Structures are given as C-alpha cells and as structure tokens.
Amino acid sequence: MSNVAIVSGEIPPPRHDTFLAAVRKGYFATPGAAAVTSVCLALIALAVWTVFRWAVLDAVWSSGGPNVCQQATGACWAVIAARWRLIFFGLYPYDEQWRSALACAAILATVAVSCFPFSWSATRLPLVWIAGYGVFYGLMRGGFLGLPTVLETQWGGLSLTLFVFSTVVVTGMPLAVCLALLRRSRLPVIARTVAVLIDGIRSLPLVAILFTAAIIIPYALPHFLVGDKLYRVIAGFSLFFAVYQAEIIRGGMQALPAGQEEAAHALGLNYWQTMSRIVLPQAFRHALPPTINQVVITFMETSLIVIIGFFEVMASGNAAFSTAEWSATYVEVYVFVAAIYFAFTFTLSRYGAYLERRLNVARH
C-alpha cells in the first residue's frame, strides 16, 4: 500500500510508535535484552520496596523521645520531630525563632516573585531583591521596633544557609557583569589584568578561598579592616561565584552578532545604553542555562562553610544527632537534610528548564 502511495506521488504519514511498542523495541527486542531488563526491573523494585518499608511502613513517627526507637526496625523519624528546630534555626535564640522563620519565608517569597516575568526589568528586579533582602536581614538581626538584637554568631541552620546563598548571588551577579565588561574592554591593560584575575581565582578551589577569607585575611589587614568572619567568607564566596558567572556572561556576549553593537553605535547610542539595552539582555538570554546551573551549584556549595566553623544546615544536622540518645539516628537526619537540598536544587533546575522553553534558548 505504501508503494502505491509513493508511485501516486503521495507521501505516507509518519509512523508514531506507541509507548508500549517503543518499550518493547528498546528493552525486549531479543531474549537476552528481555532477561537483562527483567533482572534490572526486579532489582529496582526490590530496592524501592526496601526503602519504602524502611522509611514509611516500619518507621517510627512519634516524638516521644529516643526510647520509642529502640525496638524499631525502620527509620526513626522521631529525631526530626524532636530536633527540627535545631536543624532549621541552629543556635538562634529559642524565643526569637519565629523571626528566623519569617526571614526565611521573606527570602523565599523574594525568589518566587523574581521568577515571574512582570519583575524582569532593570528597575523592578533590583527593588524586589533589595526589599526582600532588607526584610530578611532586619528580622534576623533585629535591633529595631523592640526586636532584640541577635548577632550573626548566633545565626544557624537553614536560615544561615539561605542568608549566605542569597548574599552571594545578590552581590556576585553585579560583580560578574562588571568583570565580564572589563574583560571585553578595548584597553589591553584592563582586559589582561581582569583576565589574569578571573583565571587565577578559577584555578583555586573554593575551600582555599574560604580558608583564606576566614583565617589568613585577618593577619594581612589592619584590625579596623578585618570585619566579621561571616562577611569575609561571603565576600570570598561572592568573588568565586562572580568569576565563573563572568565567563558565562562573556560567553553569552560572544554569541551575539557583532553587527548589533555596530548598529547601536550607528543609531547614536553610547556605550552604557548599548550594553544595558541591547547586549546584556541578549547575553543573559543566551547564558540562561549555565546561569541556572551555576546558581544551583552555589546553593549546594554553601555546605562547605561548615568546615570553617559556621553552624549552617549541615552542621545543624550533625548537632541534631550528636547527643548520646540520638546518636543512632544519623541516617535519618542526613536523609532529611538531603531532602532539603534536593527540594531547593530540583525546583531551581526545573525553573531553569521552564525558562529555556519560554525563551526558546535552544532555538536561538
């Protein structure tokens, strides 16, 4: 019948295999492939059932204390019910932890609002982040409207992780734009100096930069310039983020046709008008996928600050089972902390995929 269609000049419609046909063709085409697929499916089903039974069916959910888990054969989620405040708020004063919770809600709401297209402008987006970040910092530190002052040394848990992450992104993104523009400068001295700076910092591990900011900088600067250790670490982290993001932005700029800048100059636009209205918006559009990836990596790398003495969510998780009565529940705590990281990183990655589809980055 297809031969008749070809002879008559008609093109037969394309065949669309059903899902079952595609699975049969890909995984059960031969007896050997069917056997391997069956064994793999059985192992996956066994693993899923084992984890489900340990985490749900045989788990202990009561918060009656560590004694309720002594005879349990599954997970002891009672440690989360008993120690969740420590994981989320760290060393923050118990009576003031509602402020830390509101601060986290404020920064998460800021991230959510900035994801909507109506806030994507050069004036609205900075205002949204300045307002959200100001509310976050004001609630965390206090010292106004009758709120007691809570120093940064008492911050911890998830709220400290969000503070470090949001500060690094907010300060590192403008710095990345500046570095990308300076590296494209027509003055060789500036371009080469910035290139050496970027390549030099990119060649160092983040741990070395954090240790330098926390331990070595106080010996190299006068006492009045040292500042708090938390902000030194954030500054080093922001610089590390900025050099990687600068290369991502510069790659987005190089993807643009050179004629666009020439056309802008022909229309009478100056350098800053050309960059802000033509080059940078398109550069960010081209650099969107790696930018989202860099933001996700930055959130995961916030766990490294635990090695220099900060009580972030990973350190808070370690403290949750460090007592003798909860020492056997480290697996449950690590699973809970991993679920927190997964929730944030998966949401960011899915939002990045949504933006790719919306802006058609892959087609242009």
From TrEMBL:
Listed transmembrane segments: 33-52, 100-120, 127-147, 159-182, 203-224, 230-246, 295-321, 333-353
Protein origin, superkingdom: Bacteria
GO CC aspect terms: plasma membrane
A Pfam entry, by short name: BPD_transp_1
Membrane topology: Multi-pass membrane protein
Main localization, broad class: membrane
Alphabetical GO biological process terms: amino acid transport; transmembrane transport
Keyword Transmembrane helix: yes
Native organism: Shinella granuli
Family classification: Belongs to the binding-protein-dependent transport system permease family.
Family matches, as InterPro entries: ArtM/GltK/GlnP/TcyL/YhdX-like, MetI-like, MetI-like_sf
Subcellular location: Cell membrane
Name of the featured protein: General L-amino acid transport system permease protein
Keywords associated with the record: Membrane, Transmembrane, Transmembrane helix, Transport
ABC transmembrane type-1 domain mapped to chain residues: 158-352
